[in-house]
């Protein structure tokens, strides 16, 4: 398995030397500066690749191995194969990436909002901070800030009462903060920042789209792009929904084993793969993570290895340290190692530690939410330790 590290580019607080010092060898990056829907150029990809792979004298070489992500425009999610211009632009980006020898592309198909949290610095018992999804705070935002039509019917009376109590206890600055977190798009997000009025408009545009239709639109997208991926040896890896359940009345279609099975059955191309994210899938108690890894082993080309802890109500959760929480990381890695040993060296699984705690000196610094250096370094070291114990030291 290959040790990866997500790097947000030359303006990010984490440098490429930080990546080297963490022990990673494979970089996960993207052209975040390119507007969603605009085709990437080979020139722009090569410029980023040169930054990553031009090694200063005496330094450890790095390789850009994974693109995370080429965003899929909203129109594709709403119109499927009818969004021809947007799909052609996406294929052009894929071709630019492939021309530079980068063979793994991660993407997601979450409508309107990407990964969602309600708190970015939830204080853990160690004094480190973690990101958190608090169901009651989320309900308070949806019911009393966003005021989504029909939302009340989707909550029980008890939920509505508790959400109202939470909302009334929140000072104005706290309401502003949760609004900013949910609507402004978190780092690496592939959806656009939204104002509250724009948020309502975007939700209204999905009024007629249920899970079956959204899944069909994803299938149409994959049918259009997988021939280009196959021709260039590119593996497309679909990231799970985060959280893995409907939000804001929107369907989610990459949340369970059954969801992925349906997509692989519909588009059996070998280019149609999976980003195996233990944190996202692990939020659902009914997801058996080792079983999912075993069933879809040949489809896994990229892995996000992190852990989450489900809280008392089963709907709230927070990011755990990588070897804690509800994910059995040892059992997961046993499955991934077994698959990895069946592959040629150039096709082995790229993994990265994900969403580390904000801790130590990072508590005093400006960090990218979810992506502090020290918490991810700790996570990568712990994962590396498991791999050594399993007799499969990573490269």
TrEMBL record:
Cofactor or coenzyme needed: Fe(2+); Mn(2+)
Pathway: Carbohydrate metabolism; pentose and glucuronate interconversion
Record field: catalytic activity: D-mannonate = 2-dehydro-3-deoxy-D-gluconate + H2O
Gene Ontology biological-process entries: D-glucuronate catabolic process
One Pfam family, short name: UxuA
EC numbers: 4.2.1.8
Keywords: Iron, Lyase, Manganese, Plasmid
Protein name as catalogued: Mannonate dehydratase
UniProt keyword Manganese, yes or no: yes
Family per record: Belongs to the mannonate dehydratase family.
Enzyme class: lyase
InterPro entries (alphabetical): Man_deHydtase (IPR004628), Xyl_isomerase-like_sf (IPR036237)
Coiled-coil segments on the chain, per record: none
An MF annotation (GO) of this entry: manganese ion binding
NCBIfam families: PRK03906.1, uxuA
Organism listed in the record: Sinorhizobium mexicanum
PANTHER family in UniProt: MANNONATE DEHYDRATASE
Keyword set includes Nucleotidyltransferase: no
The protein's role, per its UniProt record: Catalyzes the dehydration of D-mannonate.
């Amino acid at each position: 398995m290959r040790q990866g590290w997500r790097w947000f580019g030359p303006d990010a607080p984490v440098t490429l030397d930080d990546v080297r010092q963490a022990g990673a060898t494979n970089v996960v990056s993207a052209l975040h500066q390119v507007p969603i829907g605009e085709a990437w150029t080979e020139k722009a990809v090569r410029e980023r690749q040169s930054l990553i792979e031009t090694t200063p004298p005496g330094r450890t070489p790095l390789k850009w191995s994974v693109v995370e992500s080429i965003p899929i425009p909203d129109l594709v999610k709403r119109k499927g194969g009818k969004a021809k211009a947007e799909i052609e632009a996406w294929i052009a980006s894929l071709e630019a990436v492939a021309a530079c020898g980068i063979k793994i592309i991660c993407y997601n198909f979450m409508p309107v909002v990407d990964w969602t949290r309600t708190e970015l610095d939830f204080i853990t018992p160690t004094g480190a901070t973690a990101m958190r999804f608090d169901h009651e705070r989320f309900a308070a935002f949806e019911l009393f800030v966003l005021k989504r039509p029909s939302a009340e019917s989707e909550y029980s009376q008890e939920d509505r009462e508790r959400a109202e109590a939470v909302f009334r206890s929140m000072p104005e600055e706290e309401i502003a903060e949760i609004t900013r977190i949910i609507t402004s798009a978190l780092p690496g997000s592939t959806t656009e920042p939204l104002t509250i009025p724009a948020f309502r408009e975007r939700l209204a545009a999905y009024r007629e789209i249920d899970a079956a239709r959204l899944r069909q639109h994803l299938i149409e997208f994959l049918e259009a792009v997988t021939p280009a991926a196959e021709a260039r040896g590119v593996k497309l890896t679909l990231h799970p929904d985060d959280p893995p359940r409907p939000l804001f009345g929107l369907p989610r279609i990459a949340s369970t084993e059954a969801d992925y099975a349906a997509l692989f059955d519909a588009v059996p191309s070998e280019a149609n793969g999976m980003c195996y994210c233990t944190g996202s899938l692990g939020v659902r108690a009914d997801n058996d993570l080792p079983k999912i890894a075993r069933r879809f082993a040949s489809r896994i080309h990229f892995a996000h290895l992190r852990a989450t802890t489900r809280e008392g109500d089963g709907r709230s959760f927070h990011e755990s340290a990588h070897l804690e929480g509800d994910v059995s990381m040892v059992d997961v890695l046993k499955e991934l190692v077994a698959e990895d040993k069946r592959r040629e060296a150039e096709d082995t699984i790229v993994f990265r530690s994900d969403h580390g705690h904000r801790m130590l000196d990072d508590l005093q610094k400006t960090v990218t939410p979810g992506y502090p250096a020290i918490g991810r370094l700790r996570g990568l070291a712990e994962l590396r330790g498991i791999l050594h114990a399993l007799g499969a030291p990573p490269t």
